[in-house]
Amino acid sequence: MLTMKKPFTIGIGGTHSGSGKTTIAAALIKYLTKDNRRWGAIKYTKTRSQPLIVTGKKNLTVEGKDTFKLLVAGASEVVWVKSPASGLNKVLPEAVKKLSYLEGIIIEGNSAIEFLKPDIVIFIFGEDKNHWKSGIERLFTDADIILYQDESELPETAKTKRLFHVNPLDIEEHRGFFRLISRLTDERRTERRDA
């Protein structure tokens, strides 16, 4: 029986829409693909309509769209998942399967992270506390890395994590963050191989 290769996954969640998830995802893709490695991305958008998977560069290369930013950053392929949370069990496994030929996948979106349980989870605390989504406690509690704009806004449990100030995140200015991503990726791959 053939088994599908499970690519390495990094999830990016945030307190609210506009917190910087796509910016971080694009920076990670740029960093992770610098040695001709092939990484893809899953962009999740919560909708009320039927679950839908959008693929194909023609559908994803509208300038200014998040999917376009991920492709420009160097993603080999991007899959845009539009679905209510209740439909993720149908579309997310299919999205991962479409990208299973790649070395890794960046997953953007809180509900997608909760469903897929990525190898590494990054959580971003945006500035606007009034717009923080409910239920984010589960995500930032399980996160490996916390990115923040205002440390005074962080809940105490978030302050126990690996913290990085972001405004904006730049590869040259945030070498420690990217070194940590490389180290965690190597460690988690070794753990998966040895399991």
Number of extended strands: 8
- This entry's quaternary arrangement is single chain
Question: What is the CATH C-level name?
Answer: Alpha Beta
Quote the beta fraction. 15-25%
Number of discrete helical segments: 7
**What name is given to the CATH topology?**
Rossmann fold
Write out the CATH superfamily name: P-loop containing nucleotide triphosphate hydrolases
CATH architecture: 3-Layer(aba) Sandwich
The largest beta-sheet arranges its strands as 3-4-2-5-1-6-7-8
Global morphology = globular
Helix amount, in percent? Answer: 25-40%
Major sheet: 8 strands, mixed
Average pLDDT, to the nearest integer?
A: 87
The computed structural class is alpha/beta
How would you describe this structure to a colleague?
With 195 residues, the chain is an alpha/beta fold. It has a single domain, classed as P-loop containing nucleotide triphosphate hydrolases (Rossmann fold, 3-Layer(aba) Sandwich), CATH 3.40.50. It has an eight-stranded mixed beta sheet, with helices on both faces. Helix 1 packs parallel to helix 3 and helix 4 packs across helix 5. The longest helix has 20 residues. The mean pLDDT is 87.
